[in-house]
Automatic annotation (TrEMBL):
Record organism: Flavobacterium oncorhynchi
Domain of life of the organism encoding this protein: Bacteria
Protein name in the entry: HNH endonuclease
Amino acid sequence: MANKPKKVKRSWVKENVAFDRERTKEDFDYNGRKWRKLRLLQLNTFPLCCDCEAEDLVVAATVADHDTQAKVLIARGDDPYDMKWLKSRCKKHHDSKSGKERHRGGMG
């Protein structure tokens, strides 16, 4: 009967590490039913982009965006599902805001 060859450890090959799949209380579920319903309610209540309105433009909003980061709200003990933390934005303004936040070190 043949023996199984010994595993050779090669120093230049990275070892596979198990991906951390644990969710914590600080994680916000953007795919959950509660968020999807709140997003639709926000976009139906405020259908125009708030930033475009400030520029006297009429553009439909496509994104319900947390004005303050959801993780920050959770850490402070606030409810991230409260509509007072949301703004309706078009994709252009949402991406612009998120890019600036990421550049500063936050999460968009």
